[in-house]
Amino acid sequence: MIDSVSRTTRIGSDSRLEARDVTLVYGDRTISRDLRFKVPDGLFTVIVGPNACGKSTLLRALARIIRPDAGHVVLDGKEIERIPARHVARTLGLLPQSSVAPDGITVADLVARGRYPHQSFLQRWSQADEDAVSWAMRTARVEALAERAVDELSGGQRQRVWIAMVLAQETPLLLLDEPTTFLDIAHQIELLNLLRDLNRRQGNTVVAVLHDLNQACRYADHIVAMRDGSIVAEGNPRSVMTAELVKSVFGLAAIVIDDPVTGDPMVVPLDEMATSP
Fold this sequence. Notes:
Blueprint: H1 4-9, E1 17-26, E2 29-39, E3 44-48, H2 55-62, E4 70-75, E5 78-79, H3 85-91, E6 92-95, H4 107-112, H5 127-139, H6 155-168, E7 173-177, H7 185-202, E8 205-209, H8 213-219, E9 222-227, E10 230-235, H9 237-240, H10 243-250, E11 254-258, E12 265-269, H11 272-275
Parallel strand pairs: 3-8, 3-9, 6-7, 7-8
Antiparallel strand pairs: 1-2, 1-4, 4-5, 9-10, 11-12
Helix pairs in contact: 5-6
């Protein structure tokens, strides 16, 4: 059984990446206003919330994909917009919700693009780059697909290839927007175990958007619950994932019990019609 107390004590106040009073706009719609969020260093953080609540927009702002209309995203004490793009890409890796590969590109070539931030006029492809790509492909289990064209693969295979590309960047911070999309349940668990292993063994700070609340509770050290563009609760899974929060954030009647395997909170939806008198 996982010790929930030990997971809680890992959470500190330090943060290399944070949003300071950011206002985020998508098109003509304001998604978040005056949002504050510190990514806890060295932890596996999971962001949960209903569709269109601002999870992906927050992740994109943290990764400098979109610029806040107000406020700042800060990386290592500096406004991220003032940091050279190559340095940001060496520090922070992003797996977006959807990605499009160039026509005809092979798996090996796409994964190798994760090494772009490490290349320069004076520093070309090296054995370290080769080793990083090989490790990423092996870790994401796409080695056998190396010579296949990405656009020939299944959705699940493509997702693992994109994950390999992000891993090849070898960044200390990883941001992943719905990384289990297109994966069957076995590969979902395999990926989440991989991310937890990267966090626990290598010290990577991981932030992932997940829809499955029970996977969030099992794998996260720190959970962030969002609704209507705001963070309504954050903390360790046991303090955050309550029946009241599930009802308030998702509009879902549920009970929260102990997972019989790990002891973590487990959300069990209720059939309100079946239980009503």
